[in-house]
Design a protein that fits this description.
The chain has 807 residues and is mostly helical. Strands 8-5-11-10 form a four-stranded mixed β-sheet, with helices on one face. A three-stranded antiparallel β-sheet has the order 7-6-9, with no helix packed on it. Strand 10 and strand 11 (763-769) form a beta hairpin. The longest helix is centred in the last third of the chain and has 55 residues, at 591-645. It is globular and about 100 Å long. The N and C termini lie far apart (68 Å).
Length: 807
């Protein structure tokens, strides 16, 4: 017989006493010391345990764990638990946030102020554009406008905080404290429910630390269905796939209360808890209650919940799909299509495709047909090139629901690919006569064009941005289409323009949270708060280099393409283009006489002008010198700022600025202060403007400073002419690296760090230090995260050092 010891391993014990006596001491003691071990292992083993050999066996000596091994184990635990990747993604998104708030401001002004749906759409779009960046300044600057959200709009607005701060798990409770339920205080149930949902989004798929809090909140909600709704969604998204029986039973109790609002969320959360388990008990209970209840909302939640139970099960889900397809209730047949979508996601299964295509053209329910076509996008997620060809004929269907489904399928399968075939299929649907088909086409186009780097005026991306602006600003456009255009704008610039939608990894493996998030996101047709689930599918497009301690060192690498090839979109400008108008000049009879008089006056003025020319030349020379000095000082200040931010090494900063580097503690800040206050001391120790520009260019050529930092410094030159673009780009750690850019990336010739996995140019890159004895410069935390970290330290100060009282 086998049993697991305390360490999680397996020990094999023989049936006879002689075998027990020959068992190794460590294995024997690990098993025999467990409570009731002898009784569990059978009579023979129990007899062996009673022998003198067992009694005489000495306990093994305590294993000495070296500090290095202990640290490696701790780092490995951080990696396997997902905490390391969550923290790194958060830090990258905070550092690299390039959200253009003018886009949001423009939509706020263009949309109808009296339309609550457009108001809610802008709040949702803001959360998608700032997903994971912790930047909520737009909401803070527009509190009066935000306060117009009422009832379920307030629920969604509060829940968006979870998307903005996703991954910020250390400060989650303090961030949401003003909105979370508090004992003895009754705030708006919509903000409380939204805050509980937001708490779940922040801890998505890693919710063990808040499990007890959410469970207590669910039990304390009483009969408040709004709070129950938000709490159930928070439990589902944070504990997905955990198969927690206690939470399942608690949610089942909420479901059996037969409240339409709370029951729908409870059913969805039950499916998320049992994600991929194929639990016969859970499926039987959910299917049975779907037959008993009369609420369509609950049946719809149960249909999706049943589908989630079969995630990744492939052919094992076929009997359930057949059962659901024979149901009379179209909502359960709708669930059958999502069962196929989750069970066969990213498999390319021909059998699954045949079922979806058959239902898409034969079912009598429009909802079922739409879901069948959307499921095709999930099945073909690993082969995006095939999806446009498969749904091409469906995109021309007479049924608008089928056309909507084909648009969404292409968006899901080809997300972030910029596929030309996908865009050609979507273009006719942008002018479809049905409003929700146009909505689906706008959303799908944004998904396909995510992270596209072609910003030319005649590019597909620029045209799509212009189309979105026109739809949002058109007073005669249907509200449903406007809603899609606003949300599509948020998707296009999601995560501070640093994320894409990816259902599979670079190695072709399925990403479970992404597939689940996109599946529930496509369900927002019936319930808008579910739109926030799309944030689970956001994958940062980054190169993040780490040393052996899982810290980010100062490291740079090369992209062999010009900076403009993969640059961020240009910022939006408020300036209006003015067209100069020409007016014909009339010739009068007095013009000739006036010309003679003017000629005489000009002759007299020429002499005075020549006298003043010398004075102006001298003034211009002095002004140029002052401008050069001001530009030089501004460049030095910029270099110091870059050094403090970790974009410039201490040695290079000292070389460029002429300020001696300080070895320990706060050298950069002291150097910056010394430089800033030395303006009255003259130019002693400071390089000239021309010399400084030359040194910066040389440092860039060596790869010691990134192209972005060089551009930030050189743009401070006075009256600078248009300079030739660099033919390569130096990127610093961490940087945005698009999928199409990966093939251009390589190491710099004299790089101190080398990837452990040769040829890896994106994602999390473990680095090998080729100069381990040299001092290592690490990147400081961004201000937003550093402030939170300091706040946490201040709450629990370290105990004072021991001391002795004087006699």
């Amino acid at each position: 017989p086998r049993r697991r010891d305390a360490g999680g391993g397996e020990a094999r014990l023989a049936g006879g006493a002689s075998s027990a006596a020959s068992t190794s001491t460590s294995t024997f003691s690990a098993v025999s010391c467990a409570p009731g071990a002898a009784a569990l292992e059978g009579p023979a083993t129990a007899a062996a345990a009673a022998t003198p050999v067992a009694a005489a066996a000495a306990p093994p000596p305590a294993e000495v764990v070296e500090p290095a091994a202990s640290k490696a184990h701790a780092n490995l635990q951080l990696i396997l638990s997902g905490e390391a990747s969550i923290g790194l993604s958060l830090e990258f998104l905070v550092r690299s946030n390039k959200t253009d708030t003018l886009i949001l401001t423009g939509m706020k002004k263009a949309a109808d102020q009296r339309n609550s749906l457009c108001h809610s759409a802008i709040v949702l779009a803001h959360s998608l554009m700032n997903a994971g960046t912790t930047a909520d300044s737009f909401l803070r600057d527009n509190l009066e406008w935000l306060s117009r959200a009422t009832n379920w709009a307030k629920f969604s607005a509060t829940a968006t905080l979870g998307v903005i701060h996703r991954g910020h798990v250390k400060q989650a409770l303090s961030l949401l404290a003003p909105y979370l339920p508090q004992a003895g205080m009754s705030a708006s149930p919509y903000s409380e429910g939204g805050a509980l949902f937001a708490l779940g989004i922040i801890h998505a798929n890693h919710g063990h630390s808040i499990r007890a809090y959410l469970l207590d909140a669910l039990r304390s909600a009483g009969t408040n269905e709004v709070v129950q709704h938000g709490c159930a969604l928070g439990i589902g998204i944070s504990m997905m796939g955990s198969e927690d029986e206690d939470l399942y039973e608690e949610l089942k109790g909420v479901l059996f209360n037969d409240s339409a609002v709370a029951g729908e969320a409870a059913a969805l959360a039950m499916g998320l808890l049992m994600l991929g388990s194929a639990s016969p008990k859970a499926i039987e209970e959910m299917l049975g209650y779907a037959h008993d209840t009369a609420h369509e909302k609950i049946i719809r939640g149960l249909a999706i919940g049943i589908a989630l139970c079969m995630y990744g099960r492939e052919e094992e889900a076929d009997p359930l799909v057949t059962t659901l397809l024979h149901e009379q209730d179209p909502i359960l047949r709708y669930g059958a299509m999502y069962t196929i979508a989750f069970a066969f996601a990213a498999t390319g299964s021909n059998a699954a495709l045949r079922k979806c295509l058959h239902v898409a053209v034969s079912d009598v329910s429009d909802d079922v047909r739409r879901a069948a076509v959307i499921a095709i996008g999930f099945v073909l997620a690993n082969t995006p090139a095939q999806c446009p060809r498969v749904v091409k004929l469906l995109a021309e269907s007479y049924n608008p629901h089928v056309r909507y489904g084909s648009a969404f399928a292409v968006g899901i399968s080809c997300a972030g690919s910029g596929s030309k075939e996908a865009l050609e299929l979507l273009t006719p649907m942008l002018s479809d006569p049905v409003d929700y088909v146009r909505q689906g086409a706008l959303l799908a186009s944004s998904m396909v064009l995510m992270q596209s780097a072609d910003h030319k005026a005649d590019s597909k991306l620029s045209k799509h941005r212009e189309d979105l602006r026109k739809v949002v600003g058109d007073k005669h456009e249907d509200t449903m289409t406007k809603f899609g255009a606003i949300v599509a704008t948020g998707l296009l610039d999601a995560g501070g323009r640093n994320v894409t939608i990816g259902l599979t990894s670079r190695t072709g493996n399925k990403i479970m949270p992404a597939i689940v998030g996109m599946g529930i996101f496509s369900h927002f047709w019936f319930w808008h708060p579910l739109l926030l689930f799309v944030s689970l599918a956001f994958t940062p497009t980054a190169a993040i280099g780490l040393n052996a301690d899982l810290r980010m060192p100062q490291w740079r690498f090369k992209s062999g393409a010009p900076p403009s090839a993969f640059a961020y979109p240009p910022p939006t400008s408020n300036e209006k283009k003015e067209v100069a108008s020409t007016v014909a000049t009339a010739s009068l009879s007095t013009t000739a006489k006036a010309a003679k008089i003017d000629k005489a006056k000009k002759a007299e003025a020429e002499a005075a002008e020549k006298a003043k020319a010398a004075e102006r030349a001298e003034e211009e020379r002095v002004a140029k010198e002052k401008a050069d000095l001001a530009a030089r000082d501004a460049m030095l200040a910029k270099l110091t700022e870059l050094h403090k931010r970790g974009s410039l090494s201490g040695v290079l900063h000292a070389s460029l600025t002429g300020v001696a580097a300080k070895s320990e503690g706060g050298g950069a800040a002291d150097a910056g202060d010394a430089m800033d206050t030395s303006a009255d001391a003259g130019a002693a120790g400071k390089p000239s403007l021309e010399a400084l520009v030359g040194e910066v260019r040389e440092a860039h050529a060596r790869g010691d400073i990134s192209t972005a930092a060089v551009a930030a410094v050189l743009k401070l030159q006075p009256d600078k002419a248009d300079e030739a673009e660099f033919d390569f780009e130096v990127l610093e750690n961490p940087s945005r690296v698009l999928r199409s850019q990966e093939r251009f990336c390589s190491l710099l010739p004299a790089s101190r760090y080398e990837p452990v996995a040769k040829g890896r140019t994106s994602g999390v890159i473990m680095l090998k230090d080729t100069a381990p004895d040299a001092e290592e410069e690490l990147l400081p935390l961004p201000a937003a995260l550093a402030a939170a970290s300091e706040g946490a330290e201040e709450e629990e100060p370290a105990p004072p050092e021991p001391f002795e009282l004087p006699a």
